[in-house]
Write a structure and sequence with these properties.
CATH superfamily of the largest domain: CHAD domain
Shape: flat
Number of domains: 2
Largest sheet: none
CATH topology of the largest domain: CHAD domain
Structural class: mainly alpha
Order of helices and strands: HHHHHHHHHH
CATH class of the largest domain: Mainly Alpha
CATH architecture of the largest domain: Alpha solenoid
Strand content: under 5%
Number of helices: 10
Length: 309
């Protein structure tokens, strides 16, 4: 889906250089998302890494549309983001089951044989259902002209911006500042509440993908350290999310369990997973405390590098 940008780039003008870089970055993200949609449409969602990459690339594309939104027609960016978000939700449901399946396997030996087999079959059927929904979602999106809409969106990026407007750097700094404020505010107030961890994970992930994008648009910005720091935080928060996903699956299974033996055996397992989840939240908070100075430095690094100060 390579795009003919239709512009002449003045290599001495920083605005035009960054405009071209921004278009190329958005093009790469949307093109990769579409390639993965086509792969799922043609081959299904059985391949675990394909589903993982589809979710990741749609997140990266969403981060680009968020950051570059001021340079796009509002209705266009909103439409693309909505479609990507819907598909990402479907991919996320499949991916969560892929991740918690091996976790469940670790606990199955603690259960009566019949209960363990029932849980594994329940997960298999649920994943098959979610896979079908994801494949249908890819088919629908592509059939409705998503690829042409994405190409048109890329071409319109910064098309209406005049040379008298603020520089692209200033635009992007203004766009990323609210995300930085929200992320650091969430981190500062973090407690053992699973919902707060979930919010911190979402904001941290969004910030990480935003940093990746800024690094492409401004290659001299040296944002690798900030990205690496966020990745370490995301790893700890991801472990918490995995346990919470398993916990949700077990609680839903418990409500659907019509056998007393099944219900009796699931209750202590749910308690054990809740304990593990709480322990991981404690570890994640300790990790953040140990990295608190680096986390505080992130904002300074990002602000100074993007603004060129």
């Amino acid at each position: 889906m390579g795009v003919d940008y239709g512009v002449t780039v003045n290599q001495t003008g920083i605005d035009k250089i960054t405009t071209k870089s921004a278009k190329q970055a958005l093009d790469r993200r949307l093109r990769k998302s579409i390639e993965l949609m086509i792969a799922v449409r043609e081959h299904g969602a059985e391949h675990v890494e394909r589903v993982h990459h589809l979710r990741t690339e749609t997140r990266r594309a969403d981060a680009a549309l968020r950051l570059l939104g001021d340079g796009l027609p509002h209705h266009r960016a909103k439409s693309i983001r909505r479609q990507l978000n819907d598909l990402r939700d479907q991919a996320g449901q499949v991916r969560d089951l892929d991740v918690i399946r091996p976790l469940l396997e670790e606990y199955v030996p603690q259960l009566p044989s019949a209960t363990g087999e029932w849980l594994k079959e329940r997960m298999r059927l649920l994943r098959a259902k979610k896979k079908r929904s994801l494949r249908q979602g890819c088919r629908k999106l592509l059939a409705n002209g998503f690829e042409d809409e994405a190409k048109s969106t890329i071409r319109q990026l910064y098309r209406k911006k005049s040379t008298d407007d603020a520089t692209i750097q200033q635009d992007l700094l203004q766009a990323v500042n609210p995300l930085l404020t929200k992320f650091f505010g969430t981190i500062n107030l973090l407690s053992l509440d699973p919902q707060q961890f979930h919010q911190a994970r979402i904001l941290g992930r969004r910030l990480r993908y935003t940093i990746d994008l800024l690094g492409e648009i401004f290659p001299a910005a040296r944002l690798e350290t900030a990205g690496q720091q966020l990745t370490k935080l995301q790893d700890a928060l991801g472990l918490v999310h995995d346990q919470q996903s398993l916990l949700q699956f077990l609680k839903t299974s418990l409500s659907d369990c019509d056998d007393q033996t099944c219900a009796t055996s699931l209750l202590p397992l749910i308690q054990a997973v809740e304990t593990t989840s709480e322990q991981q939240r404690i570890v994640a908070i300790q990790s953040m405390i140990e990295q608190v100075q680096e986390i505080r430095n992130l904002r300074t690094i990002l602000t100074s590098q993007i603004s060129g100060t």
